[in-house]
Amino acid sequence: MPKPEFALNLFWRTFALLALLLAGGVLAWQQTFKVLEAEPRALQAAQQLAGLVNLSRVALEGSDAINRVTTLKSLARSNTVQVRVAEDSDHWQPYDINTFARRLVTELRQNLGQDTVVARSVNDDEGLWVRFSIGPDAYWLKTSAAPVSVSLSGKGWWLVIALIASVLGSAAITRLINQPLRALSEAAHRIREGEYDSRLDETTRTSEIRDVNTGFNRMARELAKVEEDRAVMLAGISHDLRTPLARLRLEAEMSVPDEQARQFMAQDIDQLDAIIHKFMDYARPNELRREPLELAAVVEREAQAFRWPDQIRIAVALPSGTKVWADETELARVLLNLFENARRYGHAPDVPALVEVTCTQNGPWVTLQVRDHGPGVPADMLARLTTPFFRGDAARTAANGAGLGLAIVEKSVLRLGGQLRIGNAVDGGLQTLIRLQRAN
After folding, report:
1. Whole-prediction pTM value?
2. Could you tell me which SMART domains the record lists for this protein (predicted)?
3. The CATH number of the domain where 202 resides is what?
4. How many CB atoms lie within 10 A of CB 15?
5. Could you tell me if 279 and 296 lie in one domain?
6. What's the rounded Cα separation, in Å, for the pair 67 and 381?
7. What is the residue range of 149's domain?
């Protein structure tokens, strides 16, 4: 299955969800406190404004025309409360722009009358304006230089600290949640690499994790026992088969008078011995020891054993100094099987196989390319080439093979921490790409 282009591991996904949840909770509480503060402040402000309006109304109603003008001039010069005559040409903006303002307007109209006008600016002069009437005349009362509102801007530091604490808490909680899962993932990876002695903590206090660890350890013990039994069985099979094969070879050389028949029998016995060797390579890999290896030196050494001009010709074009992290025996096994596969199937009839070995470097990776110029493989069979004992059409498979060569290649590349891709070259032939970690 193809991997998604963008994927998060469990830690970052859990961290993101927890951080969003806690940050959303902080913001929600901030808005809740703001709303809960708005209503009592609106009631208090409405009562104070209503008292000021009523006081101004009484003062103006009890004055004659001359004293009223004097009173208005005095109030217009005040820094706290200003009263001025409302003109028909005045333009104003309504005050009910948020929950607090709407609550304030409602309370004022209940106290002063439904015809009361509350504005946040009059003639582009911002403030808290209340218009009231005394007989046929109307007046504006201004109590502040800016509209009254509920704001937590002065406590912004508290919000920042709460958000930072939410992020740090999310990281700590996520780490605690994912720690046993990471340990399980690492243990499973070691099992895949053949380290069947990996064990997990069975004394943890979390019952679900304890049950999972117990089950994993039981599985690891069973796998170790199965692997040990299989190794013993294969060693016994190998010994029991090779002994009669050696006797058959000796008897054939001594009792068969026909030289050609004797050669054919010897070839069959050698083939059986090679197949047994393949079985052992696939079923019982050597212990892995990764170290920096000179790629060109290893490839050149393995290619030297296959340079039979009448069967295979190998052209190596690798830059010197390129090193990869690999086990020398495991990497040699990969190259041996690829060259053997090309020698048998990567050529036209009666023509030696031509193999080209090159490499490219991309960041921390080195991609080794082994390509022959044979007939290639049908597209519908490419995905099954690394299946143990799989045999395709006769172009690349024959009865003299065990069907394990490319399966061994894939298994060894995975044990080296690399990636394998097999496909047909554009201009013909089979192309194998091996991606290994760069060591320099």
Report:
1. 0.48
2. HAMP, HATPase_c, HisKA
3. 1.10.287.130
4. 21
5. no
6. 107
7. 10-154
